[in-house]
Amino acid sequence: MESFKSGTYINQGYYKSFQPTTINRNWKITNMEIIGLLSKADRQLGRLDMYSEYVNIDLFIRMHIAKEATQSSKIEGTQTNMEEAFLNKDEIATEKRDDWEEVQNYISAMKEAVRLLHTLPFSSRLIKQTHKILLQGVRGTNKLPGEYRLSQNWIGGATINDAVFIPPTHTSIGELMSDMERFANDELNPLPDLLKIAIIHYQFETIHPFLDGNGRVGRLLITLYLVGKGILKQPILYLSDFFEKNRLLYYDNLMRTRTHNDLNQWLKFFLTGIIETAKKGVTTFDGIMQLQRNMELKIKSLGNRSADAKKIIDYLYTQPVIEVNKVEELLKKSNVTAYKLLSSLENLDILTEISGAQRNKLYAFKAYLDLFTKD
Description:
Number of strands: 5
Strand order of the largest sheet: 3-5-4
CATH class of the largest domain: Mainly Alpha
Order of helices and strands: EEHHHHHHHHHHHHEHHEEH
Helix content: 55-70%
Number of helices: 15
């Protein structure tokens, strides 16, 4: 890694674009700190993945994806929070609906991409399809959803003249993305997968192949790669929360790789993110298991209504905000019966009313949401 050369600046007349070196080649790891972090990261990922065997992961996948969607979009400037991600569009304030739609698209893009992994390799086709869903019907809809850019873009600055970074010209995107794809799928390349995806993420963000949505797609690719390689059985690890909390370091380390050929520092940062995020994931699943036990004890006090209460709580693990019509539908019981059960769950501090409305009240499963939103 010490001999790494990130690329060269190419004079394009009144600006210089950055042309990265290709990454599908033999790599040598000589930095013992990276090797040590790699070992810790592998160990923590193994602990996290273990929960796929002992917990009904399907119940909680939506929460993980929703958290990733809100945090990844937050890096881009949107302000939708976890509770809002589970509301219907008409329950969102008009001025926040564009942000809400971007988060919903991210959730849809992740789900579709994971589904496509069963039939597609980690590839340009997968990346383009994911991008197409991500930008569908929102502020980037006029920026070639699902297609690589056909013009120059830039990062930072109001114009290309004061840009912080100018990616390679559009004419080289096909070659660079093909190289990245070969690197991702080269089973003979002995480089450990966590270092591979760290390099892939850096390279993708450097190429910046789309006119918009590069950051969100690039972060999403990390989870797709880990699932595609079988390192994780389910998409339960997302780095956007770590990147958001360390936003300046995230951008600085990416940029330093380009300006100082310092790939080692980027790899250390990335592996630290894997370790910290996997540890938090384990803590979250421990919290979920404890919460489940607490809920079982609480609803016993409801006597013959405890079976109905369990149905509602099981639903809340996938959709932690609920209203009375949904309770009626789930239980196939009257509006009055549904409201009484919601009131009982509120009295047990299981649900919290969040709308402040007299009718069509919304209730949130706060203790569960807190597991995903609190450090």
